[in-house]
Amino acid sequence: MAETKTTKASAKVKLTAAEEALKKEIVGKVGRHFGKVMEEATPHMVYTACALTVRDQIMEKWAKSHRQVKEEGSKKLYYLSFEFLMGRLLCTNILNLMQTDEYQHVLADLGYSLSDIAELENDAGLGNGGLGRLAACFIDSLTTMDLPAYGCTIRYEYGLFRQKIVDGYQTELPDSWLDNGCAWEIARPEETVEVKFGGQVYSDWMDGKFSFRYENATTILAMPYDMPLCGYDSKIVNKLRLWSAKAPDHMDMKAFNRGDYIHAVEEKELAEVISKVLYPEDNNTEGKELRLKQQYFLVSATLQWILKEFEERNGSDWSKLPDKVVIHINDTHPTMAIPELMRLLMDEKGLGWDESWDIVTKVFAYTNHTVMSEALEKWPLDMFKKILPRLHMIVDEMNRRLMIRLNEIYPNDYTKHKYMAIISDNQIFMANMCLASCFAVNGVSKLHTEILKTDIFADYYNINHDRFFAITNGITFRRWICNCNPQLADLITSKIGNGWIKDAEQLSKLKKFAKDKEFKEKFAAIKRQNKVNLAAYIKEHNGIEVDPDSIFDVQSKRLHEYKRQLMNILHIIAEYNRILEDPTYDYYPKTYIFGAKAAPGYARAKLIIKLINSVGDMINNDPRVNGKIKVVFLENYSVSIAEKLIIAADISEQISTACKEASGTGNMKFMLNGAVTIGTLDGANVEILEQVGEDNIYIFGLKADEVAARLRYSGGDEVKDIYSSNTLLRRALDRLVDGSIIPGSQMFKDLYQTLLFGDYGYPDTYMVIRDFEDYMKYQEKMSIDYQDRDAWLEKAIMNTASAGFFSSDRTIDDYNRQIWHLAPIK
Ligand code: 26Q
Predict the structure, then answer these.
(1) Which of 167, 370, 417, 492 minimizes the number of CB atoms within 10 Å of its CB?
(2) Nearest Cα to 139, choosing from 81, 62, 69, 181?
(3) Of 350, 358, 410, 55, nearest to 227 (Cα)?
(4) Would you say the CB of residue 131 lies under 6 angstroms from ligand 1?
(5) In 73-170, which ranges are continuous DSSP H helix?
(6) In this structure, are residues 154 and 246 in contact, taking their beta carbons and an 8 Å threshold?
(7) First-to-last CA distance in the chain?
């Protein structure tokens, strides 16, 4: 935003006594923490001082809430996730403490603005995309609903890479988010635990028991940092626990003693590399040794902590563990928690296999977030065995027992056995481990769960109907409207009161204002202002002038072929061609905005980014279409950029190949902020349609079963026919190879080839060509409908008013009633 440049604010109001006290606190922090008086303080110091005052308040609440949870002997949720995409926390925490006005006033009095100060915080970007952001929304809702829960993850020193576009190409820079320190975390060195890797396992009879002992294992220390989190107007404080890897002192001492200083430091680095960096892969996996180590590191440290907490409170009757603890596995990434709990119960607590198994199968619940086969995790058996020899023995035994059971259920059905096995083809299949051990398995939308039940997990579903749940994702409204679009939140509150912030279904009361002239104008004015602000951001960061009165059509999400940014850009090329060639074409001005990071190793995704940028250069610099069509690629899409972008969108692009997007959550954020969706019947779009009604959404394209049918045969003829009959599409495709986008360059040939001829005789596996015509038709319809301003505003308002179902409070309530069974703190 333009105003982020300045940190001085204007509007001063007379402070209340409480605000005066807060001001004193902030000024005091600047003094005590930095040894500066206010006049000398940098804006960043002011930020830190504010954050520390907020933290103090949370800590006070924390002490109380901790005691309460202890006294009530409450059952607790441990949400294990490799990713927590938290974003910035200052405004969220202030909002949750219900002190936004106070901080705004005090900062204004000191000559700053809260929103500018908040911009100085680095995003905690410890996640790739949907799955990580979902975890962050969940922890906000859990806390708001007073449910005792801990998020557990790795304290990556580098979060998701920072994306820089250089000459149209994505380049990656490290995200050193901790460089200026993190005001929210509290180190807990006293709770450090040991995690062991490698070495050999010796089995022996000791005191009448078969026991296991490790030799030559490498020990790494796991040191926790806690980030306390308060909910909106809630009693409880929960926390995110982040584990950091440290080399034990004795490790380097050995080398030091030999006088081998360099080697000592090297070894230390090797140990600490475990929590160095987040893997930037989304919906894709490659069996990397370091990733395996990260996984074991997180689960072993977390489980040791869970058992210790349980034992301190409840003693060592481990059969009670499922009454006090539920562990949620966020996709398969933390699945090793299952054999690790077996190991701890057997090797450390002395339980037998059956007793341990009985406990383990009552403690774990698992969410699947993707059906993309390349994202279903598997580990090479040899690697697993080398790094985790004892866990390997346990997994092997789990598999042996599973196969006996499966042979009873599906006698001699060897195909099923192989498909359902934990170990086959010299690999360990993590999803099967979850399916064989968890008491609950859930998909993240209705459609996605249906696909799990009838397709990828059907064999498990058939033997365990009652373990499968459909729980549609949600988003926290506190961040995704109250904080990022405060004017809209205030407008809503002015009409229906503020009950909707905690009880999202109340948003539907807004429906009756969808035809109210005055309300519509106010709604429109807020959208326009958000567009003006975004236009200023684009001007500043991209140097492109965009018209706030054009339609803002936004696609922002990770770059993946299945999400079909390629279809979007091809359609833009087709429109461009049409404007150039058809003088009668009545084109309403449009600004297409993209935000997307590609996994650094995903060459085709990176090429699509280059294509978007190159098409942007071609179009934006063509005076013949100036004022009509613009293409903008916003660099470094992240939570903070999403917060500025989503609120300014008129159109939300949710155009994945049907059956591929498990749910989507961006779709919900756009809807909530009054953008109208163009989308396929995929993931949660199906439910958005149900909520908002077909007049207020544009659904196009093949349905999931139609896609599945087409994937059964090559489809080459169909693709060829479309290519020859659809002139607009053909000419857009031809631009990929005729050297007109980048003069003389053939660099987009791969995209052209895969669409038309495919990798292995299957062209157009993501149905870009087959859905194109329908997409174009609905795009055109939207442009026409947009021009009926009144009708469009009504659609936009209906979207906001129908978004209540997609609050993560509802999602958490569903999880809790069906799976976790936690009691809110009284
Ligand atoms: C696995 C192994 C090795 C490296 C990376 C991975 C990996 C990392 C991230 C695999 C998958 C992911 C992320 C998946 C994800 O974000 N899925 C999204 O989850 C959202 C929340 O449920 C859904 O809304 C999206 O539809 C889904 O794509």
Answers:
(1) 167
(2) 81
(3) 55
(4) yes
(5) 90-96, 100-109, 114-118, 130-144
(6) no
(7) 42
Of 443, 520, 492, 553, the residue nearest 780 (C-alpha)? 553
Residue 6 pLDDT more than 60? no
Whether residue 46 has pLDDT greater than 80: yes
Residue type at 250 in one-letter notation: H
Cα torsion angle, 56, 59, 60, 61, sign: positive
Is 385 annotated as catalytic?
A: no
pLDDT of 658-671, one tens digit each?
999 999 999 999 99
The reply to whether ligand 1 has any atom less than 6 angstroms from the CB of 555 is no
pTM of the model: 0.97
CA-CA-CA-CA dihedral for 637, 643, 646, 648, to nearest 10? -110
Residue 465 has which token pair? 């109907």
pLDDT score, position 708: 94
Task: For residue 326, give both structure tokens.
Answer: 């539920």
- The answer to whether the beta carbons of residues 174 and 158 sit under 8 Å apart is yes
Residues 535-559, mean pLDDT to the nearest whole number: 98
Q: What is the reported pLDDT for 286?
A: 67
* Single-letter amino acid, residue 254: K
Task: Please spell the DSSP secondary structure of 578-603, one letter per residue.
Answer: HHHH-TT--PPPEEEEEE----TT-H
What pLDDT score does 8 carry? 46
Pick from 57-66, 260-269, 575-584: least confident:
260-269
Find out whether the beta carbon of 684 lies less than 6 Å from any atom of ligand 1.
Answer: no
Q: Letter for the amino acid at 66?
A: H
CB burial of 776-786 (b: ≥16 within 10 Å; e: otherwise) equals bebbeebbeeb
Tokens describing residue 584: 């009668």
**Ramachandran angles phi, psi of 328, nearest 5°:** -100, 130
Compute the distance from residue 565 Cα to the ligand 1 centre, in Å.
Answer: 18
H or E stretch at 490: helix 486-496
Distance CA 710, CA 705 (A): 9
467 assigned to active site = no
Q: Which residues pair with 172 in a beta bridge?
A: 163
Selection from 408, 394, 330 nearest residue 357 by Cα: 394
- How far, in Å, is the centroid of ligand 1 from the Cα of 666? 14
CA atoms within 13 A on the CB side of 246: 19
- CA 346/CA 353 separation, integer angstroms: 7
Q: Which ligand 1 atom sits closest to the C-alpha of 286?
A: 3
Structure confidence by residue, pLDDT tens digits, 49-77? 999 999 999 999 999 998 888 888 999 99
State how far the Cα of 643 lies from the Cα of 672, in Å rounded to an integer: 12
Closest among 341, 580, 294 to 437, alpha carbons compared: 341
At residue 656, the 3 state secondary structure works out as coil
Cα 187 to ligand 1 centre (Å): 29
664 CB within 6 A, ligand 1: yes
Q: 515 by DSSP, 3-state: which?
A: coil
Mean pLDDT along residues 699-712: 96
Instruction: Encode 240-302 in three state secondary structure.
Output: EEEEEEECCHHHHHHHHHCCCHHHHHHHHHHHHHHHCECCCCCCCCCCCHHHHHHHHHHHHHH
Handedness of CA 547, 551, 552, 554 (dihedral sign): negative
Indicate whether residue 451 lines ligand 1 (CB < 6 A): no
Residue type, 590: K
**Are 631 and 568 spatial neighbours (Cβ–Cβ below 8 Å)?**
no
Amino acid at 614: S
| Amino acid at residue number 38 | M
Provide the pLDDT for residue 265.
81
Are the beta carbons of 798 and 696 closer than 8 angstroms?
yes
Structure tokens at 330: 């966020």
Q: How far is the CA of 175 from the centre of ligand 1 (A)?
A: 20
Q: Strand locations in 430-467, DSSP E? A: 440-443
Query: Which of 153, 281, 476 should be mutated for ligand 1, with most atoms under 8 A from CB?
Result: 281
